[in-house]
Amino acid sequence: MGLKLNPSEGEGLRFALSFPREKSAVPIDGRMLLLIADNNAAEPRFQINDGPNTQLVFGVDVEGLKPGEPALFDKNVFGYPLRSIADIPPGEYWVQGLLNRYETFHRADGHTVKLPMDKGEGQQWNRKPGNFYSLPQKISINPKEEKVIPIVLDQEIPPIPDPPETKYVKHVRLESKLLSQFWGRPMYLGAHVLLPEGFEEHPEARYPLIIFHGHFPYTFSGWRETPPDPDLKPDYSERFKIHGYNRIVQEYAYEFYKYWTSPETPRFLIIEIQHANPYYDDSYAVNSANLGPYGDAITYELIPYIEKKFRGIGQGWARFLYGGSTGGWEALAAQIFYPDEYNGCWAACPDPIDFRAYTIVNIY
Description:
By secondary structure, the chain is an alpha+beta fold.
């Protein structure tokens, strides 16, 4: 990259981020991030969000960055929420670097793209296994100071452990031939399966299937097989503006477990799908020119595989869809695009499904 580390007159404060050869002996493509926080309540990488309390992040693309070679951040590098390093008020800050690593995909549509592959974390760059980062450092920052601050990314985010299985909750992962052909490398779909009460005791039984659509789930959500923790300290949910939301989640999850195992509850399978991809934490469950045939892969590969493995009925009349928000949109889309493969859906507060009220604006 030919970057100079010796400060020149008028360049102001700069940061030089690099990774050591011990982490990778070969060049890396990706997005290098400089993270700056005015507190140490958590690592800076965990304090970036779209709310008023977000801390600072600056980013540059790197292509073929060699070990020991610095990616330079100066006043011209774009940041959020502040535009430039030059806009940072002088003071003491906690500073951290992170490299979101990219892969090269040679797609069947003729495009070659470099993107961050999901590694089981649901496209969360600050938790993605294999990403390099540095430990936070407390640094005095003065944007007008002619100085270069080196930061070495000598840490690596470890793999995410598989979620535990129970009598009721199982996990599946399937290599998709359709998606692998499109992306030019092995691509996988996953799902969390909730088995009905009596599944093992009635090996001859076959079950309808309910598909829950939504964003990336680490495990089956809203499910708890033990009573709520009486010692759980109540937290505050900024999203819902309520205290003790964590307790509410545990209470309702356990109530669902009791309902699910009750003799009066109808017996069926429920699945939550994992379809994180190089762009996002889910695919919107449809075929698209940009993402490939995710709708076909889910409908014709993943769901039949699950039904065969867990004794589903395996016919469209015995499949039902539901979801909320993005999941509501996906449930509607799957029902519309595959009318013979599903027998109805519940869509709660879906993302805009046409343009008469696109974020409340009629753009027709």
